[in-house]
Amino acid sequence: MNLFSSITEESFSYLVNDFGFSEPVATDGSWKTTFLYINDHMGIEVELNYKDMDAFIYIMKLESGKLPKKGEEPVKSHMEDLLNVQRTKSNGDQTTIEQFEKGISKKSELLKHNIRDLMKENKVLLN
């Protein structure tokens, strides 16, 4: 596990500890690592994009409490779009390690501050 993965799991641990989400399923891909958290009502995907040196949080709609079948793309939305706040952008390859870490923490705090509303309004926001 790399430094950014450790920071991400620590920053988003409240999803598991306080809101009943599953332990994250981490997937490494080309230029990114994703962490998928699921509870009975929604999925949250945290993407660490190493090419852009940015973190993205997606809120996913579940079908009957589950992600869509393999091969089908889940309906997902950027957290900032659902909250009606402007998406922050990194400086791409000019982003320092410290800025990347700070960006992960800021997005975690934004989600933590709004998670109850997102969970309550999930069906409305994603339909």
Sum this structure up briefly.
The protein has helices at residues 3-11, 13-19, 79-83, 97-126; strands spanning 25-29, 32-38, 42-49, 54-61, 76-78. With 127 residues, the protein is an alpha+beta fold.
Topology:
Elements lengths: L2 H9 L1 H7 L5 E5 L2 E7 L3 E8 L4 E8 L14 E3 H5 L13 H30 L1
Antiparallel strand pairs: 1-2, 2-3, 3-4, 4-5
Helix pairs in contact: 1-4
Radius of gyration computed on alpha carbons:
14 Å
Total number of β-strand segments?
5
Helix amount: 40-55%
| Major sheet attributes | 5 strands, antiparallel
Order of helices and strands: HHEEEEEHH
The oligomeric state is: single chain
Report the average pLDDT across residues: 86
Q: Total helix count?
A: 4
Provide the domain count: 1
Assign the structural class, choosing from mainly alpha, mainly beta, alpha/beta, alpha+beta, or little secondary structure. alpha+beta
The termini sit apart by 36 Å
Poorly predicted runs of 5 or more residues: none
Write out the strand line-up for the largest beta sheet, numbering strands in chain order.
1-2-3-4-5
What share of residues are in beta strands?
15-25%
Please state the overall shape, judged from the principal axes of the Cα atoms.
globular
Write out key terms for the chains shown.
alpha+beta; 5-stranded antiparallel β-sheet; about 130 residues
Please explain how this structure is put together:
This protein is α+β, with helices and mostly antiparallel strands and 127 residues long. The protein has one domain. Helix content is 40%, strand content 24%. It has 4 helices and 5 strands. It has helices spanning 3-11, 13-19, 79-83, 97-126, and strands at 25-29, 32-38, 42-49, 54-61, 76-78. Strands 1-2-3-4-5 form a 5-stranded antiparallel sheet. Strand 3 and strand 4 form a beta hairpin. Helix 1 (3-11) packs across helix 4. The longest helix has 30 residues, at 97-126.
